[in-house]
């Protein structure tokens, strides 16, 4: 193994080389994070590591536009290990072919589950959580979602309970993964 091969294989963050959203090569940390041996991921569609087909397609739509413009993309999202467990992951990537952004890429994956556990939310709770993080009031959220502000407050109360937060600023900090 060359020094470059060793650096790739033993990097402290998960790394994957992809072609058309298929893993062609990954390192030890990537394999450990997603729960199998390195060779298990060769030629695996990335779709298998997303919670759903909808999530996979959404990232392609949003990320593809940004990759075409800048050649780079990053976000934090929920990913799925091969055993089905969900976890928060910071994903950063560079397209080697920005005109065809997913043809070839280099991606890094960092497991955030220690700082940000996955909490099951209903679709409506997720909507309220996102708008809360955008600084919207209960009345503004109600107008946006077609709900009464009291219903929004009920959703927020459930979110506070699910996340073990006492007040909205603490809840927002937990959503964003910031230390409290």
UniProtKB/TrEMBL annotation:
The keyword Transcription regulation applies. SUPFAM superfamilies: C-terminal effector domain of the bipartite response regulators (SSF46894), PYP-like sensor domain (PAS domain) (SSF55785). Keywords: DNA-binding, Transcription, Transcription regulation. One of its GO terms (biological process) is regulation of DNA-templated transcription. It comes from the Bacteria. The keyword Transcription applies. SMART domains: HTH_LUXR. CDD domains: LuxR_C_like (cd06170). Residues 114-179 form the HTH luxR-type domain. GO terms for molecular function: DNA binding. InterPro entries: PAS-like_dom_sf, Sig_transdc_resp-reg_C-effctor, Tscrpt_reg_LuxR_C, WH-like_DNA-bd_sf. PANTHER family: DNA-BINDING TRANSCRIPTIONAL ACTIVATOR DEVR_DOSR (PTHR44688:SF16). This is Tetrathionate response regulatory protein TtrR. It comes from Aliiroseovarius pelagivivens. The gene is ttrR.
